[in-house]
Here is the input.
Amino acid sequence: MVSKGSTHDVCNYNTLLNGYCKMERVDEAMQVFDEMLREGLAPTVVTYNTLIKGLCLVGRPWAAHQLFGNISTCGLTPTIITYSTLIDGFCEQGNLYEGWALFQEMQKSAVKPNLVVYTILIDGMCKCGKLKDAKVLFSRLTVEGFQPDVHTYTVLIGGVCKEGYLIEALKLFRKMEEDGCTPNACSYNVIIQGFLQHKDTSTAMQLICEMVNRGFSTDAATRTMLLDLPTNDGSPALKNLSGLCDNHQDVKVK
Here is the structure.
């Protein structure tokens, strides 16, 4: 039988596991975990959360799910971090079905979903092309007592842009600020990339001007898209966009 052992020893093992997992050396982390059990030390929920995160990081959510099943067996209770990490792990692999199943399990447990979990699922739905479901879940947030934050809005805006609904994306972007949620650099880059991807350089230029005036800068992905724009069509929008990038070091295309 595994005993509780020294709290100090367990903390040392948890630190070692965390180090291996951050370096994506999860097989070595699992070997350390096995050694921990052989030493008669009882894993804590932190131990399991660390390993679950490490396994999800390297694209092995099913292995993480097996560990998840051991938590209750050991007399421990999964935390919000346990659930959110595993749901994210499945969604990142495109397995929305399992992510949703865990979400439903949460709703029946003592650990209720928080805004982070909702945002993970909305993101997963958008990436899987289930924009309608993502919008339905987004609309449930206020009913459940949550106020969407900038990350939640940005995720949905990205999904709307991906499907080519640019007017809707811009309305949502404006609504975000109307609701008291100020857009950040990531929000601007996501919507600008959406307009550039769908060849609306005029609106992209306006948003870049707005972003620069707020002190934000373009990210690498946006700069790459700007580099790929045709420069010989003589359009005023493109000329102005080029001048803007030349005059502001933060957004200068290198």
Notes: The CA atoms of residues 48 and 124 lie 24 Å apart.
